[in-house]
Fold:
Amino acid sequence: MSPPLPYRGRLAPSPTGYLHLGHARTFWIAARRAREAGGALVLRNDDLDATRYRMDFAQAMLEDLRWMGFSWDEGPDVGGPHAPYNQSQRGPLYRAALARLHAAGRIYPCSRSRRDVIEAAGAPHEGGPDDEPVYPAAFRPGPGEPLPPLGERIGVNWRLRVPDGEELFFEDSRLGRQSAVPGRDFGDFPVWRRDDCPSYQLACAVDDADMGITEVVRGEDLVRSTFRQLLIYRALGLPAPRFHHCPLMADAGGARLSKRHDSLSLRALRAQGRSPESLRDAWAAGA
Ligand code: GLU
Structure:
């Protein structure tokens, strides 16, 4: 057996709002796991979605992470062997992965609207942020239907065909064994969007593989995405990292923290005079 690869972890915030306490806690766990393993930490700027991303949030994100006491070995501001670390600058890598999926016949174009899918499939049952209705198998192209070329500019969604009924597993280092059945728990999902932008699932898997990430630490709202990404690794013949999904933080009323919780953004807490140490102590105490 070959020796285990040296640990490489990552922080992958999206600059779509100010970072809040929930992000900081997840990142703290990621940074601690990398440090304890004597490994490296990569900061990746997930600024893929040009419609939601804002430059000032990207700047604020770096500042807030530094203020909180984070440091990283590679990232958009410090460079590194896997540069660029901004997803918006990594388009050719995603496009190359898409071309491989296309050549392998693993994807197909879909011009159904979200409404078509919801009408045929019903609303997603769990309602989590990474949940979408199970794409109806009846919407798939028929067997033997020729696959059109990708074309220079993409104007339809391209979906990955999932192996219906196969039970998928991974061992989460916090949650233990996780399983899901494609076709039941999630369906064919977009790897490329009709606005000619790669999907989060594709970009994330391609980057984690390209950057040699050995363990992905992120919130447990993304467990279902992990299964989708495992299928992308498999289709591309790439080794998958290990996973550690962290508990999500809730506000005093029990609602999951989101970027709408401005009062719990690191910016706001800092403006209120809170110190990074006091915030970390609150996590340690379970607050
Ligand atoms: N940028 C994504 C997010 O903030 C990253 C998720 C991940 O860690 O894979 O939700």
The pocket of glutamic acid is lined by residues 12-14, 46, 204, 218, 222 (CB under 6 Å). The mean pLDDT is 92.
